[in-house]
């Protein structure tokens, strides 16, 4: 086995659905990224973190499993923040997760924003809700965010070539930055784990 630089990618999934269009979009992002450089992916499904998450008002009140999920997000080389649009914004559980993240843990961390919604007008969530959230954390949001509306999918599979193209453009723009962020961990292929 050879030692290679692997980018630790953590997806924070704000969708309550399983399977979901949001994760269908993220799958395209991860597949495209894996073609550019070696990645190791982890996924945090906020709707499946349980009462140790939903009942916590402050970080001190979370269970050890939830603490591990929060640390996983804080220590990522690249964070993919993915959420469906609910009533003009991201879901409350998605926001609750980031309410528990340390204020400075995401400073200068690359964050790729991804969202899904019923129609193209929901794409505004990227610039008017998600980007300001991560600006608070002083994160380095990837300039090209990705959005897919219901018409771009067949079930949870993204069919629209424009969405695929936007993902390619967005990742190509920051490929050098992401390569520099990759850690020197051992990997021979893309691995996956869910939290």
3D structure, described in words:
This protein has helices at 21-36, 51-54, 64-74, 92-99, 124-136, 161-181, and strands spanning 7-13, 39-45, 78-84, 110-117, 140-141, 146-149, 153-154, 157-158, 191-194. It is of the alpha/beta class. It has a single domain (7-190), classed as 3-Layer(aba) Sandwich (Rossmann fold). Strands 1, 2, 3, 4, 5, 6 and 9 form a 7-stranded parallel beta sheet that branches. Strands 7-8 form a two-stranded antiparallel ribbon. α1 (21-36) links the parallel β1 and β2 (39-45). 37% of the residues are buried. One of its GO terms (molecular function) is oxidoreductase activity. This is FMN reductase.
Structure in a nutshell:
It is built from six helices and nine strands. The chain is an alpha/beta fold and 195 residues long.
CATH topology: Rossmann fold
Number of DSSP-assigned strands: 9
N→C terminal distance: 27 Å
Uncertain segments:
184-192
Number of separate domains? 1
Output the structural class: alpha/beta
Biggest sheet details: 7 strands, parallel
Strand content: 15-25%
Organism: Actinomadura rubrisoli
Keywords: Flavoprotein, FMN, Oxidoreductase
Pfam families: FMN_red (PF03358)
Protein name: FMN reductase
